[in-house]
Amino acid sequence: MNPSDPAPGEPRIECVPNFSEGRDLTVIDRIAGAIESTRGVILLDQTHDADHNRSVFTFVGEPEELETALAKAAAIAVESIDLRKHSGVHPRIGAIDVIPFVPLDGSSREECVALARRVAHFLWERFEIPSYFYGDAALTQNRRKLENIRRGGFEGLLKALPDDAERRPDIGGPGLHPSAGATAIGVRKFLIAFNINLATADISIARQIAKTIRESSGGLPAVKALGLELPSRGMTQVSINLIDFERTSLYEVYGWVKHEAERLGTHVAGSEIIGLVPRKAIEMAAERFLQIENFDSGTVFENRLREATRKSEP
Amino acid sequence: MNPSDPAPGEPRIECVPNFSEGRDLTVIDRIAGAIESTRGVILLDQTHDADHNRSVFTFVGEPEELETALAKAAAIAVESIDLRKHSGVHPRIGAIDVIPFVPLDGSSREECVALARRVAHFLWERFEIPSYFYGDAALTQNRRKLENIRRGGFEGLLKALPDDAERRPDIGGPGLHPSAGATAIGVRKFLIAFNINLATADISIARQIAKTIRESSGGLPAVKALGLELPSRGMTQVSINLIDFERTSLYEVYGWVKHEAERLGTHVAGSEIIGLVPRKAIEMAAERFLQIENFDSGTVFENRLREATRKSEP
Q1: How far apart are the C-alpha atoms of B52 and B238, rounded to whole Å?
Q2: What residues contact residue A117 under an 8 Å CB cut-off, 6+ apart?
Q3: ipTM above 0.90, yes or no
Q4: Which residues touch A3 (CB under 8 Å, ≥6 apart)?
Q5: Domains contained in chain B, CATH given
């Protein structure tokens, strides 16, 4: 058996859509129900945050199954979320703000890009929601980065379109859907959303640390970061996306934030993982912290057992 | 499905025998071959160390399968290892020095104790090797601790027996096997063997740190530790067993050794896991180090997927 093949029956594609609703549990539960009730789809995780006013669902399945789940979830989002009345600390351009696909073992970037294209056409034909492609689905180098698409948010796009040709959607448009805005659809690696909370309400410190660590300001490779206020907790947060944890790890980014926070007279109050984290990222953090010289995935009993069981099958 | 039930086909008992041969690869390979060739047994790991002059094999299976593998491995050890000519930095009492059984999900302490008894009788009847029971298989409180059985090593037992009634074997005896000594057979939790190397050749520092952290000298609960020389590397080592990593974790023991080493003017050069480490112990280290507030086993993508897949099966 090829080591990159999945075990029979293991899902091949992950989908992690973000919706611009983090406060109304009725809407969030209806979206979750739409996904869960789709045959073949396994909903692995859902999180929502009132300050971000945003919910994130993680599920896996085959391409057709994911399309069905997204169609049902999108119908609820279009009907329930109105960007003209939406506020939250997280940047966003639409009700169905972003739909990333992640190829797991047994799938490929190409298969996920084809899926992204089909979903974009579907959103336009069915709901008149235009789409932008980002990450490995991007049609231009500039749009590989989600933040370039999202600059100025819904309100910014509303002003720019339809006149600014540079900002026109890839599918549909040229204007936005009046209440549901637009959707960014992408193909990417497993992304780790890792928020580090600071024991200070001074937003300038969180912003300064975010600027120090993010790649776009000359910081750590494959790191995106924003300084955010957390009014409900009286704290501030460095909200981090690790877009390639094998280039910059949890261990490194945590170490940098801790160091910078202490230099600026505060400290790390705690951290949180939004959604899920790959096993390998956790193992890498433990390995680095504990200085284990002989560590590999097979040092972990459960991993070794799974490998050995697969090998011993006919 | 009860969460403590294993998935169908998952092994129920782990066995981790230690043999007093860490230099002669021919013998080590023959022992490995004997285990691997036993139907139903999966050999997960083997390590050997020249300074310790010791080899450790980790395998899983059903009770009868483990007995068969141990019988074959013991025959090779009895024929090849002579304690009268053996030297090494690790304490030992026999050729088949110690045989621990660990109940996994789906087995019990009781089932493993019964297995330990059968193996002890077998070693006596077939090879005239006497046994001591330790851990949860111990017949007296004093013998729960392996170090009480092992005190003075093979040479110490040779002097004490057969006269010292306090030190007589539980099965067989009253004297030792002339070349193969005795065997300690136990039932215990998953043990983590974690060695931390110090950037100093001064053995007194390693010994002092070991004394500070081990439970028997008033240190950390469920921690055993010895200071050892590593002549082949020009270093010293704090050789640690965590016998209950949920009481004292990798994170804590590493933190203490690092702190003490720095206080004594040296530092940690690196660490190593001997054998395997449970997934949960690695996750706990990463969680503590990264200060993740919302972490549980299901935060890890692969764990969540496995749980979800099991749940969705009929």
Answers
A1: 13
A2: A133, A137, A171
A3: no
A4: none
A5: 13-187 (3.30.990.10), 192-277 (3.30.70.670), 279-314 (no CATH)
Using CB atoms within 10 A of its CB, is residue B116 exposed (0-12), middle (13-18) or buried (19+)? Answer: buried
A55: tokens are: 């919910």
Residue with tokens 């294993």: B6
Of A276, A290, A300, the CB nearest to B299: A276
What is the predicted pLDDT for the residue at A314? 44
pLDDT in the model for residue B3: 38
Say which DSSP state A203 is in: H
Residue B273 to residue A292, Cβ atoms within 8 A: yes
**Contacts of residue B3, Cβ cutoff 8 Å, sequence gap at least 6:** none
Query: pLDDT tens digits for B204-260?
Result: 999 999 999 999 999 999 999 999 998 888 899 999 999 999 999 999 999 999 999
- Closest CA in chain A for residue B303: A279
Burial class (CB in 10 A: 0-12, 13-18, 19+), A264: middle
* Mean pLDDT estimate for chain B: 92
For β-strands A183-187 and A131-135, DSSP reports them as parallel
The mean-pLDDT minimum among B32-36, B61-65, B88-92 falls in B88-92
Output the pTM of the full model.
0.78
pLDDT < 50 stretches in chain A = 1-5, 314
Residues on chain A bordering chain B, Cβ-to-Cβ distance under 8 angstroms: 9-11, 42-45, 60, 190, 250-251, 254, 268, 270-273, 276-279, 282-283, 285-286, 289-295, 299-305, 308-309, 312
Tens-place pLDDT, residues B180-210:
999 999 999 999 999 999 999 999 999 999 9
- Cis omega (within 30 of 0) for bond into B17: no
C-alpha A285/C-alpha B287 separation (Å) is 9
Q: Is the peptide bond before B169 cis (omega within 30 degrees of 0)?
A: no
